[in-house]
Amino acid sequence: MSTEESGGEPEAGALLLCRAAPDSVAAVAPLLGERMPLAGAGGEWSVLVPEGGPWRHGGEPVDRVVTGWAAALAVGAPWPVLALWWDADRAGYTLASGFHRPVGYVWLTDGTPVAEGEAMRTFAARLGLDPVLDLESLERLTKPDPDADARARLGGLLAVLTRAGVALPAGLAPGTPAGRLGAAARTLPDARRTAAAARRPTVDESPLAPWLPWVGGPGARVLALAQMAAGPPLTAWGVRHRSGGWTAAGLLLTAHGALGAAYASSRRA
Question: Within 10 A of 75 (CB to CB), how many other CB atoms are there?
Fold first, then answer.
């Protein structure tokens, strides 16, 4: 992964892989507060392609932004979210799943591992990967390898995930700058753009419909209360660490949960 810029464009970028169909992801993606392309990425997976406003124009580190986004999506939906990210100095991933603490791994640009191997074991367990073959492949990514840079490490991670059904569309290669990723994603045949935060997606046929506040299903109040419980700690952590991504995720969860609770209560009245 070169430290040079491509065409004057910062090379930081990210992909958000969700273990759910695009319709289900589209229902909760407005939580992120930023519209972005969404496409299928294998039988059980979808990919969100951030165009990188917070790190291209706001100076926020890409890893903090996408970790906050992954956590917000995972708390707001019953499926895991894997954020792949990279910049001029490092690359890595963060896996968020429900109320579990996110787990991640980081490599320097030259591929040097700078994280604990235990993270890979937790990663494999939470995704239900093969505890022998897949874990062996993942643990190789934690060993020194002079021939593997950060991009190759992410490629090795994706090779393991193909056995879990991940198939990234053409043009969405880790290491590509966010602007070029967004342009490639918009040309995909099944791509759509997620809704703005103020809009209500049409989700009546979505598997998540019973849990969404504007549908008023039986799980809406439970989900709203969970979001209200998770939002303030995320916000506090973001403020304490001066992370705009985490702070925004916490505020969005809190606001969305409060709105959901109020809406669910009005439906019951």
Answer: 26
CA–CA separation, 234 and 34 (whole Å) = 18
Residue 160 · residue 136 · CB < 8 Å: no
Quick one: 224 and 176 in the same domain?
Answer: no
Domain assignment of residue 234, given as a range:
209-268
Number of structural domains in the chain: 2
Count Cβ atoms below 10 Å from residue 175 Cβ, excluding itself: 18
Closest CA to 47 of 137, 161, 160: 161
| Contact (Cβ atoms closer than 8 angstroms) between residue 121 and residue 137 | no
pLDDT in tens, 159-196: 999 999 999 999 999 999 988 999 999 999 989 999 87
Q: Are residues 165 and 98 in the same domain?
A: yes
Q: Which pLDDT does position 223 carry in this prediction?
A: 61
CA distance 251 to 235: 6
Alpha helix ranges (H) inside 8-167: 22-28, 53-56, 62-75, 118-127, 133-140, 150-162
Q: Which residue, 162, 193, 224, sits at the end of a domain?
A: 193
Over residues 135-162, the pLDDT tens digits come to 999 999 999 999 999 999 999 999 999 9
Closest CA to 86 of 193, 162, 173, 182: 173
